[in-house]
Specification:
Blueprint (H helix, E strand, L loop, with lengths): L4 E7 L11 H8 L5 E7 L5 H11 L4 E6 L1 H11 L6 E5 L5 H6 L5 H8 L4 E9 L2 E3 L2 E5 H10 L5 H13 L5 E7 L2 E13 L3 E3 L2 E2 L11 E7 L6 H9 L9 E6 L2 E4 L4 E5 L2 E5 L2 E14 L1
Parallel strand pairs: 1-2, 1-3, 3-4
Antiparallel strand pairs: 5-6, 5-17, 7-9, 7-15, 8-9, 8-14, 9-12, 10-11, 12-13, 14-17, 15-16
Helix pairs in contact: 1-5, 2-3, 6-7
The chain binds adenosine-5'-triphosphate (ATP).
Keywords: ATP-binding, Kinase, Lipid biosynthesis, Lipid metabolism, Magnesium, Metal-binding, Nucleotide-binding, Phospholipid biosynthesis, Phospholipid metabolism, Transferase
Organism: Rhinopithecimicrobium faecis
GO biological process, one term: phospholipid biosynthetic process
Length: 292
Amino acid sequence: MAARKRILFVINPISGGRRKNAFKKQVLAALDLEKFDPTFQQTTHANHARELALDAIQEKYDAVIAVGGDGTINEIGSALVGSNVPLGIVPEGSGNGLALYLGIPMNEAAAIRRINKFETVDVDCGEINKHKFFNIAGLGFDASVSESFANDTIRGPLGYLKSIINVLSKYKPKVYKLVIDGQEYERQAFMISVANSPQYGNNAYIAPHASINDGILDVCIVHKFPLYILPMMVFHLFNRSTDQSDYVEIIPGKHIQIQTDDSNIVHIDGEPLELSNELEITIQSKSLQVIC
Ligand SMILES: Nc1ncnc2c1ncn2[C@@H]1O[C@H](COP(=O)(O)OP(=O)(O)OP(=O)(O)O)[C@@H](O)[C@H]1O
């Protein structure tokens, strides 16, 4: 009989605002224990999931499963890129953008059962000033929302809604200079999202035609727009039709430079980070294996 595959479940206890006390029991019921030997670790601090995934590579685990949202996936995926150890996902986040795109079930037991097939897909990895991202990185309005969300105690979709309303009331668009594959642009923008996958999470599609394994990033520039247009913008986001809005410009590229007047709060897969006013963004094609 072949040896069982050793898989590490990394559980983020705060993601999605959901308790995960019964998670281990659920895995023992849904995972094929003849094929897999599960181990469980709970994160105790930000970036802990990355440390655990790096250890798992050394300890020759066969897969590391992110039990959390896009931030947890980012930490684990950043460690696993180029390692041949696949990432699995049990979606337990607030937005779950990557899992929704990959068609991973939102139901916990169904997502665990999906791991039994152990089928993988190779996905691209974006890099912004050397920080890896798998879903979407952005600056402007969405980065300010992620900063507000990270500082709030409410998680889940309601937490995002509260942050959007907070930020919207005081937000001012900025001027950005961009170079996308050698072509220069200057734009006054409400926000700029650099999308590897089409959606932020919660089925809000900023880049409806983005593909996670085409070696290309979609630079979505949302221009300054009058407030009365907001309901239309929201409609486009959830109708997968932002590319049809007069206020959205989507430019594909592989090498992107973005410059602003002052330092930037950016979000990387939904987590805020302060970076310099000069951003350099590249893509490593098909560099992470994801179980889906
Ligand atoms: N024990 C912990 N205490 C506090 N923060 C933690 C802990 N473990 C992980 N984190 C941090 O929690 C943050 C949020 O996690 P994650 O993104 O997975 O959930 P989410 O924000 O609710 O979901 P989504 O990204 O899908 O919207 C991550 O940035 C991670 O670093």
